[in-house]
Inverse folding.
């Protein structure tokens, strides 16, 4: 490619962005009528070949005669640059013993070359070994290092450990830039990583070591979701280390992780839903459960609702925040935060029966300092365990032998709606999913054609939508 396109100095400068400082020395030579200039363009047909040639010219001072004629030794001296390694002039530096010689190391079955990368505080040369399966590979590694030394961009491999870097990454790049729940998950992942990988030097971490770490978690029955979370946090931290020039590659990428085992979602059948709603009337917090079932909102979104989020005239519910539980050093902290994603901010139309239920609730419930729909608890907010206990009580009252969570009611809402023919795009917006693909993937198991065929037999569900079916049943239940 270079042979065909390197007709102008402009193209060469694009190809050699890292070597712009060198092009000043080479420009006359490339553009001259000297036959050696032309042969240079023809001979070096790859970027690595040309880069290696430039290193020989600049660092080793092995100048082609055509170039040497055009620059006096004094002029070359003016063009030397000081590398970022303690003020060492790379071009003038004394070559180390055996520097440039590539030997085969029988014990490692690899070729090895050594390069002086700078000097320590006592003036002693600091040498680095470069290994490769072929001489060519070692030459390319050394050439790249020479270029970085010349430009002052070379970074000596850090002695920092994986554990030290994970802590630094969390404090500097993670903690203040993500939601607090995400930050908490990152801390949990770091605590999983550090006991196993923490003492390994960051530069020495290998892909096979990380893969064994993953396999060990899998063998110890950690869920696929948890494993992917841990590996994802490690990958992000190493990606930042790569950007910082601390490591040559991200060894947490392209790894094998266990596949998600999608569990069958537990939801209420139409008949169970009818009994469930009726049983909710006798529970003190039945209005919370009925709201979840009639709107499909997340439990965190419901617990964060204030009366200002309800427009009784228009009949809508505004979702723009959520209650989050953060576990920090063994203590649970509850606070209002942003919604799960940007698309989770939405307005949901409310059934007339639900509006009536909420109006009665507002009239009869004592006010609370935070103006919450479901407030008045110790520390202000409802705990994460209370909704599960409420649902368990309602299931026992309705004699339904199932284990349901607040999220099960969200799935029930979506399933009923899709069974009745609500468009997938509409359901995505109601649920606040980030994409229609997510909605489709979650409910891909539904056989809509079969469900439609039996929908007419469900007399308690309205003819046109889930909303009417829920409204009929909810109307039978007194509000509290």
């Amino acid at each position: 490619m270079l042979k065909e396109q390197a007709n102008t100095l402009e193209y060469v400068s694009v190809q050699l962005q890292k070597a712009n400082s060198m092009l000043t020395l080479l420009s006359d030579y490339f553009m001259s009528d000297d036959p050696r200039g032309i042969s240079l363009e023809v001979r070096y047909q790859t970027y690595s070949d040309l880069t290696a040639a430039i290193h020989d010219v600049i660092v080793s001072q092995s100048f082609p005669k055509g170039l040497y004629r055009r620059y006096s030794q004094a002029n070359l001296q003016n063009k030397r640059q000081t590398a970022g390694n303690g003020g060492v002039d790379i071009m003038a530096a004394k070559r180390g013993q055996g520097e440039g010689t590539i030997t085969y190391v029988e014990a490692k079955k690899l070729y090895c070359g050594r390069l002086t990368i700078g000097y320590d505080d006592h003036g002693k040369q600091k040498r680095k070994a470069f290994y490769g399966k072929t001489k060519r590979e070692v030459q390319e590694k050394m050439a790249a290092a020479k270029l970085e030394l010349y430009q002052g961009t070379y970074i000596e491999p850090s002695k920092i450990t994986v554990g030290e870097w994970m802590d630094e990454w969390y404090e500097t790049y993670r903690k203040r830039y993500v939601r607090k729940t995400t930050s908490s998950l990152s801390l949990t992942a770091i605590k999983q990583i550090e006991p196993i990988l923490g003492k390994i030097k960051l530069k020495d971490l290998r892909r096979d070591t990380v893969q064994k770490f993953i396999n060990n978690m899998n063998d110890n029955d950690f869920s696929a979701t948890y494993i992917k979370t841990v590996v994802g946090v490690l990958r992000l931290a190493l990606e930042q280390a790569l950007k910082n020039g601390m490591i040559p590659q991200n060894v947490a990428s392209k790894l094998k992780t266990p596949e998600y085992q999608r569990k069958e979602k537990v939801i209420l059948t139409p008949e169970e839903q009818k009994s469930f709603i009726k049983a909710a009337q006798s529970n003190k917090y039945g209005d919370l459960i009925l709201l979840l079932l009639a709107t499909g909102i997340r439990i965190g979104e419901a617990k964060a609702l204030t009366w200002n989020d309800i427009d009784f005239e228009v009949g809508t519910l505004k979702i723009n925040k959520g209650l989050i539980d953060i576990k920090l050093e063994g203590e649970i902290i509850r606070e209002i935060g942003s919604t799960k994603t940007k698309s989770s901010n939405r307005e949901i139309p409310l059934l007339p029966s639900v509006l009536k239920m909420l109006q009665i609730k507002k009239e009869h419930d004592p006010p609370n300092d935070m103006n919450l729909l479901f407030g008045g608890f110790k520390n202000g907010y409802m705990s994460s365990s209370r909704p599960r206990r409420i649902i368990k009580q309602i299931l026992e009252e309705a004699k339904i032998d199932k284990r349901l969570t607040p999220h099960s009611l969200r799935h029930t809402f979506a399933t009923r709606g899709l069974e009745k023919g609500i468009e997938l795009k509409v359901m995505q917006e109601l649920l606040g999913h980030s994409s229609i693909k997510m909605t489709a993937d979650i409910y891909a198991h539904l056989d809509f054609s079969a469900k439609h065929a039996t929908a007419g037999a469900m007399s308690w569900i309205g003819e046109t939508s889930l909303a009417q079916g829920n409204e009929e049943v909810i109307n039978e239940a007194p509000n509290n």
User: Anything to note?
Assistant: The mean pLDDT is 75. DSSP finds 22 helices and eight strands in the chain. The CA atoms of residues 44 and 50 lie 5 Å apart. The beta strands are 102-105, 110-119, 125-132, 310-311, 316-319, 322-328, 331-337, 346-349.
